Amino acid sequence: MQRIENINAATMTDDKGYGLIQDATVIINKGKIEFVGAAFDAPATPTAEVINGNGGLLTPGLIDCHTHLVWAGSRANEFSQRLHGASYQEIAEQGGGIKSTVKATREASAEELLELALERAETLMSQGVTTIEVKSGYGLDLENERKQLTVARQLAEQLPVNIKTTLLAAHAVPSEFSNNADGYIAEIIQNILPTLANEGLVDAVDAFCESIGFSPAQTEKVFKAARELGLPIKLHAEQITNQKGAKLAADYQALSADHLEQLDEEGVKAMAENGTVAVLLPGAFYFLRDTQKPPVELLRKHAVPMAIATDANPGSSPIHNLPLMLQMAATFFHMTPEECLRGVTVNAAKALGENQRGVIAEGCYADLALWNCKDAAELTYQFGVNPLKTLWFNGVAHDRVSKPWSAR
Ligand code: NIG
Ligand code: FE
Question: Which residues does Fe(3+) bind (predicted)?
Answer without folding.
Answer: 66, 68, 236, 311
